[in-house]
Design brief:
By secondary structure, the protein is an alpha/beta fold. The protein is 43% helix and 13% strand. The strands form two sheets. The chain has a seven-stranded parallel beta sheet with strand order 3-2-1-4-5-6-7, with helices on both faces. The chain starts with 11 loop residues before the first strand and ends in a 5-residue tail after the last helix.
Length: 423
Amino acid sequence: MTGPHQALARHRGIVHHPGSNHLAYELVAGLQEAGFACAFETGFFFVPDGTAAHLVRCLPKAIATRMESELRRRFHPGVDPRRLTLHPLPEILHVGLNRVGLAGSGLARVIDWRNNIVDRAVARRVRRERPDFVVGHDGSALLAQRAAREIGAVAVLNQVIGHIEAGLALFREESALAPEFAETLVAPPAAIVERCAQEIREADHILVPSDYVRETLTARGAAAECVHVLPYGVDTARFRPAPRAADGKFRLLFVGTLSQRKGIKYLLEAVRRLKLRDAELILVGRMVGDPAALAPYRDSMRHVPHVPYHEVHALFQQADIFVYPSLHEGSAFATYEALASGLPVVTTPNTGSVVRDGVDGFLVPIRDVEALMAKIETLYRDRAQRADMAVKARARAEEFTWAQYRARLVDYFDRFLGQSRKL
């Protein structure tokens, strides 16, 4: 092997994630591309020429096409299928129960059960194979992380959302402030909360996607020198500006789960109170909790419960601005996709986005309906500013492609493994 990372080929590692996570795929692909001998353990991964693909293609064409489209969301061309180990049964059960409507604490317990099965299996492999590093994801990393530390390997936690205790504090406040949306805020069992907190305390290095996540961790005892900010990426070929239908509408777009964690009530209140002529708020995503909470806002919004992921980019292309007033995130993928689509973004610091206030969008405080109203109205009335921000939004997204994510990732691992304790 040749190239700048050839010396890293001797570094053997295991990355694990029990479910479906495009970020985990990018991480594995980036490490493998750079020459790391990196295995990947996950619940299910689609291989286009594998057994699952051949079985699907035996089905009637319409069903097969739909199923393969869905399964391809669990595929990444940069992940080496020869280095995969799958744990399909726990993930199939989780997906099945989710599809039939299991939600809330019941679904949280199923996810915890699934996570533990995979975590235990990876921990056994770590002790058996003694890799140089192990990368886990929050909520499913503790046992493998401890096994890594036992053998002197580097334990890396990929923390994709703010500290769980920060989120729970916000949930408690929101349940009092917006009781009609309280059902959308699901608190995990205490054992899961403690496990997530232990993962943060015990990791050698923690990758986080934003300053918001870093701040929630260091405020709760994580050593600042162990927390490393690595923003996400976006597919700028797929998410890109396109000519918009000239129908006189001003479209505000939100894409995500319709829950109070996303600050959905504050967005609905802002739009209802503004009463902008020829404005349309489009909410794309699944409602959790009691749908009656949306009833007072029916005249102020249009709800699209589900759009296949391969069609979502077209919704961004037909919008004028993207609004995402979330209370607790990691670094919301949708904000990157909006920027890449040339949309000014109105969001909060807690969203962990790469939006620059006053440049390619606006940052407003969480729960601030008046601030949301002011920024939305500015973009509604000032077409010149909106057009300028649209150009800058696209340019900003081009600084955060997945290729750039992978390059930044490898720089971090160069450092992590240079500090390895392993003899």
